[in-house]
Amino acid sequence: MNLSDRLTDTFRILPAQAVALKKIGVDTIEDLLYYFPTRYGDTAKVTHISTLSKGDQAVVFGQISGLKTSKGYRSKIPMSEGFVEDETGRMKIVWFHQAYLAKMLVEGSFVRVEGKVSDRKGDLYFSNPKIEPVTKLPIGVGDSLFGEGSDVHTLYPVYPETRGVSSNWIFHKIQTIFSSKILDTIEDPIPKEIRDKYNLPTLRTALVWIHTPQKESDAEAARKRFAFEEIFFIQLDKQKTKYEFKESNAFVIDKSIEDINKFIDRFPFKATEGQKKTIEDILTDFRRGHPMARLLEGDVGSGKTAVAAATAYAATTSRPKGQNFGTLQTAYMVPTEILAQQHFESFIKYFKHMPINIALITGSGCRKFPSKVNPDGWTDISRTQLLKWVASGEISILIGTHALIQKSVKFKHLAFAIIDEQHRFGTAQRQKLVQKDALVPHLLSMTATPIPRTLALTLYGDLDLSLLDQMPEGRKQIITEIVLPGQRKNTYEQIRKELEAGRQLYIICPRIDEPDPDKETAILAKSVKEEAKRVKKKIFPEYEIGILHSKMKPSEKEKIMLEFKDKKLDILVATSVVEVGVNVENASLIIIEGAERFGLAQLHQLRGRVLRGTHQPYCFVFAETKTDKTLERLRALKTAKNGFELAEFDLKQRGGGELYGRKQWGISDLAMEAIKNIKMVEAARTEATKIIESDPKLSKHPNLKLYIETKGQKIHFE
Ligand code: ADP
Ligand code: MG
Fold it and tell me: What is residue 137's DSSP assignment?
């Protein structure tokens, strides 16, 4: 047996089990060993057979007898049967679909049985219980169970189950793997010095402890080790990427802050300290000859676009080496068409005094500024034409959706790549934008998603961090109100007054978790349509209402956004797609339905939509439940100073798993819990950095290298 052996080649696996294993992402022996219990059942609840009654969830210890396999009388379902007996009585056991169990257990041996007591015509029996052989029966089960000398495990692993594989099945398979002595051959990829320094058990010990702990503290130590391991590997991978990236060559963009100030002085506002500092840091990076890799984090409305424009200006006013014409090129990638168009237009405003071409590329078409016929405006151009001009270097700034990273898009002198709302893109997409040519473009990644610092350190360990933690002066404060089910009527009336005064309203429909993305969009689309109908019929019949959701075609979406912008619509009912920076200045009201289903940081981002105008903005957070915990959480929206504070609050209260779990980042729930622990994250980062600095290719750490190469692929930073 080898760690990399496939389970299907090692055990007899039924087709339904194969499907289930695939679903939980378990393919090899190693995967199964890394499938950890979520909790441990405790034998403190051990009961005597004579005291059991129908419906009890019970643990009993006893001797097994009368084992046989059979088939259901009518159903023909294969099953195992047997009896468990303690000093107080005897009870039948039936396992459906698990005929193998009868053969695995030894007649007369001592077992621990955990399961539900069922009843058939007055006869009690255990139906599909979990069963485990034990070497010794606890004497007088109950008080003396924890008596000295007992070698019975007191903690039993409970694994996340899925249709087709039970916790019991997983437990038995893991026990079989353990008894194969495979653990003796396992090599620990974490260097001994690091294990000793942080008091982490070896891989072998940790595996035993996590699956069959003798005591709570063993399980805890094992969990700590695996959490450290995961974060440490991510950090190693990130530090390695960072090192390699920094080793490559990039265009030298040598501009002083004075050069850039000429551009900044044209802004209709004064740059904030955060903006100035970030721009200066970027200019420093630009001069190095090695590519910058920087993440700019700032709340919605903190002015990231201005930073992007000012630094794009630095590239745009630089000549390619050895050339006395043309400019270095900038690519600006954003996640949606609406946003791409909006940025295209704001860049035209920023750059129209300069003799350069700016272009837009999206799935639905291409545009170029300036137009030959109208030097103040843009014109539609063909894709072929655009590609030609990008390749010849005539387009200085290209803004677009992911259409920008298609193979056919070739730049002449791509020196600077900007990614907006970077969390919306996968690593692969980001990497494509900064593809390794002879010269690697400088990368500025921007996000308004406030994530806790520990998570940022882990996920973005390969990037340098800049923060815009201060809003531009004179910004209005959003008045946020939490609206409980009984208070809606009053709130709608309050909103009506604002609508009468000419304001506009967003209504955001609740988030719906559905593993299948297609289904999810369909459900969301439906809820948006229904909410719009309801609002039109029952609440605001006198107003024009539009809808926006991701099942709509980009052109339809754009049409609706324009109608909303032009005030042909008063109310826009939408899914959280409007989360992404769309600018409608007159929309000063937002209702968020089912608010408890969103993370606080996301709610904060959503309400940022109404921060754009001159009118007093309001955010109405509609809650469906009113438990104290929900209310306390939502109230944080009123008190927190910025998105980062909210993200930390969420992490503390709900834990990382729920908010930023596997679905979003591909990090295990266990490691996400560890994200709460800044000390552990920093330790993992420090150790990883040390290793990469002394051994960048990991040639002295072959085990680690192998682990990163195989495990790294499983982590996707979407
Ligand atoms: P985000 O960080 O969400 O991308 P934007 O770049 O879209 O924010 O900026 C939001 C608004 O704030 C824009 O209208 C922009 O012109 C304005 N703005 C940016 N910087 C400043 C500043 N320093 N002072 C005042 N307004 C600013
Ligand atoms: Mg933005």
Answer: P
Q: Is the CB of 342 under 6 A from ligand 1?
A: no
Contact 583, 634 (CB under 8 A): no
The string over 463-491, giving b where at least 16 C-beta atoms fall within 10 Å of a residue's C-beta and e elsewhere, is: beebbbbebbeeeeebebebbbeeeeeeb
Average pLDDT over residues 49-58: 86
Q: pLDDT by residue (tens digit) across 142-163?
A: 333 333 334 444 577 888 888 8
Instruction: Give CA–CA dist 27/517, Å, rounded.
Output: 23
Residue 39 CB-half CA count within 13 A: 2
Cα separation, 510 vs 23, whole angstroms: 27
Q: Are 194 and 188 in contact (CB under 8 A)?
A: no
Specify the 3-state DSSP secondary structure of 158: strand
Q: How far apart are CA 478 and CA 604, in angstroms?
A: 10
Ligand 1 pocket test, pick from 302, 307, 349, 424 with the greatest ligand atom count within 8 Å of Cβ, gives: 302
d(Cα 521, Cα 602) in Å, to the nearest integer?
A: 18
**Strands 379-381 and 365-369, sheet pairing:** antiparallel
What structural domains and CATH numbers belong to the chain? 45-151 (2.40.50.140), 253-287+303-447 (3.40.50.300), 479-641 (3.40.50.300)
Ligand 1 atom closest to residue 307's alpha carbon, by position in its atom list: 6
Alpha-carbon gap, residue 34 to 635, rounded angstroms:
39
CA of 301 to the centre of ligand 1 (A): 5
Ligand 2 centroid, distance to 664 Cα (angstroms): 21
Cα angle 348, 282, 388 (rounded to 5 degrees) comes to 45
Q: pLDDT category, 3, cuts 50, 70, 90?
A: confident
DSSP per position, 385-445:
HHHHHHHHT-EEEEEESGGGGSTT---SSEEEEEESSGGGS-HHHHHHHT--SSSPPEEEE
Q: Which ligand is nearest to the CA of 349?
A: 1
**Cα–ligand 2 centroid distance for 338 (angstroms):** 12
Radius of gyration of the chain (CA): 31
Residue 219 corresponds to which tokens in the numbers above?
């399980």
Q: Tokens at residue 707, please?
A: 């682990």
Joined tokens for residue 229: 């391991």
pLDDT at 712: 57
Q: What is the DSSP string of 340-363?
A: HHHHHHHHHHHHTTSS-EEEEEET
Joined together, the tokens standing for residue 623 give 């809650």
pLDDT in tens, 392-406: 999 999 999 999 998
**Whole-angstrom Cα distance, residue 453 to residue 80?**
52
Measured by CA distance, the residue closest to atom 20 of ligand 1 is: 303
643-654 and 600-607 helices cross at what angle (nearest 10)? 150
pLDDT > 80? residue 4: yes
Model confidence at 88, pLDDT cuts 50, 70, 90, reads confident
Pick from 263, 266, 269 the residue to mutate for probing ligand 1's pocket: most ligand atoms within 8 Å of its CB.
Answer: 269
Integer Cα distance of 703 and 187 in angstroms: 8
pLDDT at 374 over 70: yes
pLDDT in tens, 258-289: 999 999 999 999 999 999 999 999 999 999 99
Residue 501, classed as helix, strand or coil, is coil
How many whole angstroms from 569 Cα to the centroid of ligand 2? 24
Going by C-beta distance under 8 Å and a sequence separation of 6 or more, which residues neighbour residue 546?
A: 532, 560, 563, 564, 569, 571, 572, 573
CA-CA distance, 319 to 437, in Å (whole number)? 18
Per-residue DSSP letters for 165-185?
B-HHHHHHHHHHHHHTTHHHH
Q: How far is it, in rounded angstroms, from Cα 493 to Cα 20?
A: 51
